[in-house]
């Protein structure tokens, strides 16, 4: 068994690996040429310099509406001694763009003419030669260079091409990429019914992500049918692709060191491995090979690994074939709100959410697992932590590469704290109006939200912290933990918390008291979560100590994760909100109705974005949608509590 | 005649006009919905929020290659007392992504296992529950919000959609725009032979530029056939478009105040004029109207006016219909190298070329005429000069909106000075190699180039300044005008200068001495141009005074413009380079061979980009292309003269 496992060759740094790749495939702008018409050329890359065939304008023309005259004939005109010009003899009406009548060399603006009758125009100032005239060739001179080779045609360029008489242009053919998704666990989503999926089966999505990324950078692709983990078949597919004029071949999955990861073997049997393993995260298991002089790249199967490997290796290769520079994302300096340790010797591509809080742009890290596509679809940008760094210090200023325009980052409301499903509704509701606002929520528990306010890294904290002394929510915690910060508290919802249990209640659970039973496995929330405090309060009332509860130490960070744990029987029950139970078709035993508030520092409270947020919360539309979730009460929703 | 002319209504400021437009058409995300498959949704805008249908992963799976175990069974293992696990009973081989075998709850990495034989794996440390396991729902939990409405689907999103079991998504239909190009002077480039074009005829390109811009911001379009200046026909076309489900109608041309500009009349007869004329330049003559509740916009016919009007009015409207924010260009602070006066009360969209010289990004203005499409295709960005400003001071720092990534601006070599056709060849030659360098040349004459070096706003000056005392080039001028700046001089070419004359030499010109003839109309170069100095030197030698030459005061800024003037008989002859004559199929009488050098401050001379530039100049490829132009001598090309 061990003998068939791959062992990584000596891993390369990102720079080394790119160097090896680009030296092995040095072709720059080497693709064949095809002709396309000027209007169809947008986004294409010129294979040759393009020179104008005709001048534009192709004739002297009026640059103003008025009359065309021979300048000489106007000399001497002045206010006290105006000059009369005979229309259609000395002077000719012209509109902007009209050809200059024979014998004229100046235009006088309509506003400066007194029309005497239909035959006579009077002027009170002379014209100088060539005034208000667009000369032939003013825009484009025949034979001049319009665009150099390797120029990418923009919509604007269409105008210069047609104006210069260039109706078709030589562009580079699109590089063609063959995608071969491998893995016996894969299912084709176009052919299945998701109801029938079995554990262990996975919907193949990577090749679609790749295909769309290839198109976005100017290539085209073909997708091979799903390929089981069968080296002979994969070899055949790669060989066919290489022989069939594909410029690049990508296998997807099977590039790491597992026993069924055959990519290395495949490339070795057909050609040469150039790189196996790069010291980046995600993206480490990429394999770069050469078969018959063509790049064959083993893309990692984890989606974020695959995306990073694509952007670091495949996209640059496509750009080079097209004769284009690698695209570069807009960069911005950001403050990292929490310490981010990172492994020495590995360059990490950290996905972050960004928001402008006060005068700085703050970055908070998304989960770092390479397997979660949502860590990149949720991200506003990426921070690259260099291999020689052990991570980022709290409040350190670093460079982030943006996924969206800076302006969108400025229009993000950063909400940190307890998780509640109505925040998703709120995010969507904000999008209905033309606010341009994005709601960015991080779920770190209620106490985490208060700490985020203290550190000045959010606009709003979501919190449901119960004061077990007096039954109040949030106020006493704010007094204690944020003594120096003036805040407003706005109620978002009241909501039912309770025990989430499987359909049919197989373990016959009725309330908190059952959690102490030996046959019950509990799933808890992290400490600092309002739900955790609520649990401890209830346990205390019932004189149940944590040690008596199996699974008390097993923590999840959101209501939905607790519900998932119950759904897949990792636990028998957990405390959470009704909406989470409903969402996964689980049952719910209400324990208490609690208050969920938004805590907003006064410095942000009067801002335009927060005003829109509060108006949205107060709107009927929002409240109707919230009530439809079940387990929510909106009587005080939008009320300013203090 | 005057009665049919339009008079602008009271013009609106840009802000007022946008306000009127957006209030008249407040629809945000109001387009109908259509379903597209997840893989075809890139670039489309979600019409509804999208929630996950299944969890991803859909099962607990191994996050590492190794063995899956029940954590309990590993407790107590340590180096001194390893634990043996029976394979396929206590422990099971798993690869990354594999479903966790029944009864196991942890994975131990392959690297931490000693395989004893095919039945026994030994471990020296316990596993804790859930280690190296990707839990069900770790990436996506069924029912969670994947993307809110109005989210634009990116290639990454495809992965989250498919992973979440969402195989098709509701997106907004693309807004449909009808384009109606008007003007009796227009020709359809798809149907004509440019050889047969007559003066006054113009190739219609605006509707193609518009069509491509519409597609780039997410809309689609139909193009009406070319429409003569006939109000009845235009009315019919607009009415048909409004009745036929187009969301926006654009007429192109005919929006200013000329007698044949019918757009206002057309809109008035069908509906209502909301705005006629906006205090922007270019873009002033835009007309905004409403017909049957739909926007009908009269786009100016000058291409840059049209582009500005599109980006300020039509693009935002398309974005709003789609439920998207207006796109925003990356902004950067730039130093403007020369004073730019601007008209008070008009907001100007100034097209600029940008380059990083030393530590600052310098901006130099392109020609400001709205009729020249090349002023926008050549531009690297735009500076907006507010209506309440009289312009930009020399060296003032202002904000520019970028047309290309900042990185490309950094990689621009700014060359200012005398014009020579070989600079086009050099620009193209630099593109052949993967240098990423763009050559940006401004033509302001040799002396202008030296002044640009003095002001620190260019990397290189192109110069051929003859010292009439000793026949040397450039050196004495540099000593005099740049006494404090250390520069290198690199020869670019030696070139023939001479008289450019029409084919067949109708006026029988033989040399400079003919310029004093009464029947000869000359076209001159601007003062400070090397060619002008050369002319004056030759005239002096022949004892001809400038007053004796007709047209001595009529100046052009480039060789090509001089050649164009000769071609269209504005002048009988001008002094210029052979290449310009050849390009327009004119004749050429050599007068002198002169030296054209590149002047490069030492502070830039050692930079990577300048090294690449000089290597390119020295290359055989460049020199071969230069010689093919005719009138050039490359014996000393690339030589460092001092």
TrEMBL record, chains A, B:
<dbReference type="GO" id="GO:0046872">
    <property type="term" value="F:metal ion binding"/>
</dbReference>
<dbReference type="Pfam" id="PF00994">
    <property type="entry name" value="MoCF_biosynth"/>
</dbReference>
<comment type="pathway">
    <text>Cofactor biosynthesis; molybdopterin biosynthesis.</text>
</comment>
<dbReference type="GO" id="GO:0006777">
    <property type="term" value="P:Mo-molybdopterin cofactor biosynthetic process"/>
</dbReference>
<dbReference type="InterPro" id="IPR024370">
    <property type="entry name" value="PBP_domain"/>
</dbReference>
<dbReference type="GO" id="GO:0061599">
    <property type="term" value="F:molybdopterin molybdotransferase activity"/>
</dbReference>
<keyword id="KW-0460">Magnesium</keyword>
<dbReference type="InterPro" id="IPR036135">
    <property type="entry name" value="MoeA_linker/N_sf"/>
</dbReference>
<dbReference type="InterPro" id="IPR005110">
    <property type="entry name" value="MoeA_linker/N"/>
</dbReference>
<keyword id="KW-0500">Molybdenum</keyword>
<dbReference type="InterPro" id="IPR038987">
    <property type="entry name" value="MoeA-like"/>
</dbReference>
<dbReference type="InterPro" id="IPR036425">
    <property type="entry name" value="MoaB/Mog-like_dom_sf"/>
</dbReference>
<keyword id="KW-0501">Molybdenum cofactor biosynthesis</keyword>
<dbReference type="InterPro" id="IPR036688">
    <property type="entry name" value="MoeA_C_domain_IV_sf"/>
</dbReference>
<comment type="similarity">
    <text>Belongs to the MoeA family.</text>
</comment>
<comment type="function">
    <text>Catalyzes the insertion of molybdate into adenylated molybdopterin with the concomitant release of AMP.</text>
</comment>
<keyword id="KW-0479">Metal-binding</keyword>
<feature type="domain" description="MoaB/Mog">
    <location>
        <begin position="178"/>
        <end position="320"/>
    </location>
</feature>
<dbReference type="GO" id="GO:0005829">
    <property type="term" value="C:cytosol"/>
</dbReference>
<dbReference type="Pfam" id="PF03454">
    <property type="entry name" value="MoeA_C"/>
</dbReference>
<dbReference type="InterPro" id="IPR001453">
    <property type="entry name" value="MoaB/Mog_dom"/>
</dbReference>
<dbReference type="Pfam" id="PF03453">
    <property type="entry name" value="MoeA_N"/>
</dbReference>
<protein>
    <recommendedName>
        <fullName>Molybdopterin molybdenumtransferase</fullName>
        <ecNumber>2.10.1.1</ecNumber>
    </recommendedName>
</protein>
<dbReference type="Pfam" id="PF12727">
    <property type="entry name" value="PBP_like"/>
</dbReference>
<keyword id="KW-0808">Transferase</keyword>
<dbReference type="InterPro" id="IPR005111">
    <property type="entry name" value="MoeA_C_domain_IV"/>
</dbReference>
């Amino acid at each position: 068994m061990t003998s068939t496992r791959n062992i990584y060759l000596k891993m390369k740094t990102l720079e080394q690996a790119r160097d090896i790749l680009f030296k092995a495939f040095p072709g720059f702008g080497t693709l064949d040429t095809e002709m396309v018409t000027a209007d169809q050329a947008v986004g294409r890359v010129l294979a040759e310099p393009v020179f104008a065939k005709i001048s534009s304008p192709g004739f002297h023309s009026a640059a103003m509406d008025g009359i065309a005259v021979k300048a000489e004939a106007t000399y001497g005109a002045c206010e006290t001694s105006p000059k009369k010009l005979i229309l259609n003899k000395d002077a000719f009406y012209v509109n902007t763009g009209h050809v200059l009548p024979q014998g004229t060399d100046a235009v006088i603006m309509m506003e400066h003419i007194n029309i005497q009758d239909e035959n006579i125009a009077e002027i009170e100032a002379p014209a100088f030669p060539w005034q208000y005239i667009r000369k032939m060739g003013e825009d484009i001179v025949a034979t001049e260079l319009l665009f150099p080779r390797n120029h990418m045609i923009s919509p604007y360029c269409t105008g210069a091409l047609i104006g210069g008489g260039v109706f078709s242009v030589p562009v580079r053919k699109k590089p063609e990429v063959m995608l071969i998704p491998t893995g016996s666990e894969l299912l084709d989503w176009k052919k299945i019914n998701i109801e029938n999926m079995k554990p262990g089966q996975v919907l193949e999505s990577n090749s679609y992500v790749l295909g769309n990324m290839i198109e976005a950078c100017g290539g085209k692709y073909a997708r091979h049918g799903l390929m089981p983990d069968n080296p002979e078949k994969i070899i055949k597919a790669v060989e066919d692709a290489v022989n069939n004029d594909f410029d690049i071949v990508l296998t997807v999955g099977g590039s790491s060191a597992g026993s069924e990861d055959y990519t290395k073997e495949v490339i070795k049997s057909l050609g040469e491995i150039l790189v196996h393993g790069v010291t980046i995260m995600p993206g480490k298991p990429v394999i770069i090979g050469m078969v018959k002089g063509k790049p064959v790249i083993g893309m990692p199967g984890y989606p974020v690994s695959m995306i990073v490997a694509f952007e670091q290796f495949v996209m640059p290769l496509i750009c080079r074939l097209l004769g284009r520079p690698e695209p570069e994302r807009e960069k911005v300096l950001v403050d990292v709100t929490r310490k981010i340790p990172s492994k020495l010797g590995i360059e990490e591509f950290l996905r972050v959410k960004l928001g402008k809080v006060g005068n700085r742009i703050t970055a908070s890290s998304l989960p770092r697992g390479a397997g979660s596509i949502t860590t990149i679809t949720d991200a506003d940008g990426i921070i690259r932590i260099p291999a020689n760094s052990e991570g980022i210090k709290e409040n350190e200023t670093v460079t982030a590469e943006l996924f969206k325009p800076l302006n969108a980052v400025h229009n993000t409301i950063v909400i940190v704290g307890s998780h509640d499903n109505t925040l998703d509704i709120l995010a969507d509701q904000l999008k209905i109006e033309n606010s341009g606002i994005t709601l960015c929520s991080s779920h770190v528990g209620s106490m985490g939200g208060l700490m985020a306010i203290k550190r000045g890294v959010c606009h709003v904290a979501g919190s449901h912290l119960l004061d077990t002394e007096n039954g109040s929510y949030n106020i006493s915690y704010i007094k204690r933990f944020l003594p120096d910060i003036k805040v407003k508290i706005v109620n978002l919802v009241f909501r039912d918390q309770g025990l989430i249990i499987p359909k049919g209640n197989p373990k016959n659970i009725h309330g908190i008291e059952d959690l102490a039973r030996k046959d019950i496995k509990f799933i808890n929330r992290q400490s600092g979560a309002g739900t955790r405090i609520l649990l401890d309060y209830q346990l205390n009332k019932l004189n149940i100590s944590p040690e008596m509860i199996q699974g008390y130490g097993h923590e999840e960070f959101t209501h939905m994760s607790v519900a998932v744990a119950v759904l897949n029987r990792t636990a028998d029950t957990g405390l959470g909100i009704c909406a989470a139970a409903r969402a996964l078709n689980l049952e719910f035993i209400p324990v208490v109705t609690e208050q969920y508030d938004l805590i907003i520092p006064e410095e942000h409270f009067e801002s335009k974005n927060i005003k829109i947020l509060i108006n949205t919360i107060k709107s009927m539309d929002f409240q109707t949608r919230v009530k439809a979730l079940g387990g929510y009460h909106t009587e005080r929703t939008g009320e300013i509590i203090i």
